[in-house]
Amino acid sequence: MRNFLILLALFSACNSLYLPEQVHIALDWEDTGMRVSWSADQPSYGSVVQYTPVNSPNDTVTKFAYSNMGSWKTFLNMDVSKILQRHIHVCTALMSGLIPGGYYKYRVGSEMYGWSSHFAFRAKRNFTDDPLIRLLVYGDFGIGQQAEATTERLIQETETYHYDAILHDGDMAYDFPSYDGSYGDRFMRQIEPYASKIPYMTSQGNHEADTATLHYLYRFNMPSKSKNLWYSFNLGKVHFLAYTSEPPFWNQTGLQKQQQEFIDNDLSTYNRTEYPWLVVFGHRPLYCSANWSTSGLEDWVPPVIRNNNDCLQDAQVVRNTFEELWHKYKVDFVINAHVHAYERLASVYHNVSVPCEYEDQNTCIGASEPVFVVTGTPGNQESYAPISPTPLPFSMAQDAGWGYSRLTVFNSTHLYWEQIRSVDQTISDWFWLIKSSKSTAYN
Ligand SMILES: [Fe+2]
C-alpha cells in the first residue's frame, strides 16, 4: 500500500508538469475562428483544445463537441543576467467553425496529461445588425501590488463578456525573462481570468525587445505573418492596425522596411467604405508632454519619473518613422503608451494642432488629422509618471492615477473614448470623435 501511495504521488507530481495554464485567446484571420494559447512546464503529446457551443457562458458542460490539435513551440528564456536559462513551452490551437456571436465553453490539455479549467468566450459577431464595438485598452502593465487594482477592475469589466477585444499596447510583466522567466509566467497567469474570455490583442513594447523578444513572439499568437509584430483586423466599423514602434530604436532598418511594406499594402487595400474608422496602435508615443521642471536625463529617481527623453528625442524618432504614414492613410485615432501616465492630445500633424470643424474640450467633429492618446497607467513595478506641469499646447487631458481606457465605436460616425481610474472606476477623461460628412469624404 505504501509503495502504491508513493507511486501515486510521483505520478501526480510528474503529471502536474504537463498541466496547462496561462490560457489566453486572440482573434483569428477568419471571423469564425478564435486562437487559444497556453503554457505548461513540459510539452505533452496529443494536446488539444476542446470546445462546444453553449446558450450561456455560465452553462456547465461535460461533453465538448469539437476538438482541434495544438502545436507546441519551445524557446529559451534568457534571464537579464544572461546566466540563467530555461526552456519555455507554449501551445497554440485554433477553435474553428464558430457561430458568429455564439457563446462557447472550452478547455485545453489532454486525457492523459490533464485538462485546464473550463473557460468561455463569445465568438466574433458579424456586426450586421449592431455595429457597436467595445474594447478595453492599455499599455505598460506589470505584475505585483501596483497591478492589483487594475487587474481587479478588468476582471469585473469582463464578467459579462460584452467586450469585443482587449488591446495591450506593449510593455508587459517588467520583464518577461526576469527571475528565470517567472515574471513572464506571473504576468500570463494574472491576465488569464479575462484574457481567456476576451481576445487579447497585443503590440510589441520596448520591454518585449532585447532578451524579452522571444517571449513576445512565442507567448502570443496574433493573426499576423510577422510573429505578432504587425497585423490588422476588423471589428464593427473599425479597421485596427497593430505595429511595432521598436525598429528605429534597435537599428532594425530591414525590419522597419518590411513593416512599412505591410502598412502600405494593408492601408491602401482594405475596404474603407465598409470600415470607415481607422485606428492604429503601437507602443511608443508620437506626442506626449515632457516635464520641463525636471532635469530630463536624471529623472529616473522616484517619485518623479517622467522620462523626458520619451516625449522629446524619442517621440521625434517615432514621428519621423510613422507620422507621414498616418497622415497619408488618414488614420483617425492613434493609441500609444510607454509613458506611465494618461494623456489625450488634439488632432495633430507636424507638431501643430489641426482644428476640427467643431471642437471643445471633449469633442472633435470632423478631424482631418489623427487624434492621439497615451494610455500607460494600468500599473507596473517599474516607474510612475506624474502629470506634466508643462503640457504641449495641444494636450487636451492628463491623468496620473492607475487606470485603463475604454473604446466604444457606435457606428460609422461616432467613436467614444474614456479613461477609467482603477481605484474607484471614476471617469477621469472622456472624448467624442465624430465624423462629419466632410471628414467622411476625406476618407
Ligand atoms: Fe515602454
Automatic annotation (TrEMBL):
<feature type="domain" description="Purple acid phosphatase C-terminal">
    <location>
        <begin position="370"/>
        <end position="429"/>
    </location>
</feature>
<dbReference type="InterPro" id="IPR004843">
    <property type="entry name" value="Calcineurin-like_PHP"/>
</dbReference>
<feature type="domain" description="Calcineurin-like phosphoesterase">
    <location>
        <begin position="134"/>
        <end position="342"/>
    </location>
</feature>
<keyword id="KW-0325">Glycoprotein</keyword>
<dbReference type="InterPro" id="IPR025733">
    <property type="entry name" value="PAPs_C"/>
</dbReference>
<feature type="domain" description="Purple acid phosphatase N-terminal">
    <location>
        <begin position="20"/>
        <end position="122"/>
    </location>
</feature>
<feature type="signal peptide">
    <location>
        <begin position="1"/>
        <end position="16"/>
    </location>
</feature>
<dbReference type="Pfam" id="PF16656">
    <property type="entry name" value="Pur_ac_phosph_N"/>
</dbReference>
<protein>
    <recommendedName>
        <fullName>Purple acid phosphatase</fullName>
        <ecNumber>3.1.3.2</ecNumber>
    </recommendedName>
</protein>
<keyword id="KW-0732">Signal</keyword>
<dbReference type="GO" id="GO:0046872">
    <property type="term" value="F:metal ion binding"/>
</dbReference>
<dbReference type="InterPro" id="IPR008963">
    <property type="entry name" value="Purple_acid_Pase-like_N"/>
</dbReference>
<dbReference type="InterPro" id="IPR015914">
    <property type="entry name" value="PAPs_N"/>
</dbReference>
<keyword id="KW-0378">Hydrolase</keyword>
<dbReference type="Pfam" id="PF00149">
    <property type="entry name" value="Metallophos"/>
</dbReference>
<dbReference type="GO" id="GO:0003993">
    <property type="term" value="F:acid phosphatase activity"/>
</dbReference>
<dbReference type="InterPro" id="IPR029052">
    <property type="entry name" value="Metallo-depent_PP-like"/>
</dbReference>
<dbReference type="InterPro" id="IPR041792">
    <property type="entry name" value="MPP_PAP"/>
</dbReference>
<dbReference type="Pfam" id="PF14008">
    <property type="entry name" value="Metallophos_C"/>
</dbReference>
<comment type="similarity">
    <text>Belongs to the metallophosphoesterase superfamily. Purple acid phosphatase family.</text>
</comment>
